[in-house]
Amino acid sequence: MANFLEGQEVCKNFGGLAALERVDFEIREGEILGLIGPNGAGKTTLFRCITGVYPPSSGKIIFKGKDISKLMPHEICVLGITNTHQVVKPFSEMTVLDNSRVGAFFGKGWVRGEVKDATQEAMRVLEFTGLAPKANVLAKNLTLPDRKRLEMARALATRPELLLLDEVVAGLNPTETDMIIYLIRQLRESGITIFMVEHVMRAVLSVSDRLIVLNFGEKIAEGTPDEVATNPQVIEAYLGKGYAPGNGDK
Length: 250
What we know:
This protein has helices at residues 43-50, 73-79, 96-106, 108-111, 118-129, 144-156, 174-189, 201-207, 225-229, 232-239; strands at 3-14, 17-28, 32-36, 58-63, 66-67, 81-83, 162-166, 193-197, 210-215, 218-223.
């Protein structure tokens, strides 16, 4: 499979702090790529560079052969990349349907004329995410699991080709987590490529084809879930040097 999205030596500095240091990555069309690492590793910063919220300090991000490093978020969304937020951010005083309609109005489908009816498009994604029965409920009255699904629905209404999921199962119980995992698999089957940040290892290991690991802004490992889970650098980053293979009992 050809590279769908590619990052070339991506750096992001905030004053004297290097949040990302020369990070190379690639996403293949149709795969689920997981991004893991300890808190503060730079995962959300990388997502924000991809979606145009933060311009990279240096390096390039290339989507389907086009350099998108200097584009604005709405321009990147129209190209077919969108994301969910780590902390869900619905329009609280708007209904579930209207939240989803916002995505439809600003997405690739509407701008390119593929979507003629924003309400119909919004209902399509609400049906997919299981929120259609709550279409007329105010977003502020939803439970956390439903707000998570609304976050996904609003993103899906933009008709993304690449969907970035930022800790979409955080705060959910095992049953709710399984429901989101099922949705992610269904998204991939529908043709959407997935790049996901997740701290719930059961979730990310069960759905990812490959994993990338960041630590202190640097990529320290990449491979299949099995390869990454047994990588000494990854074990050290998460658990400490004493737990890495070859260090003996401490």
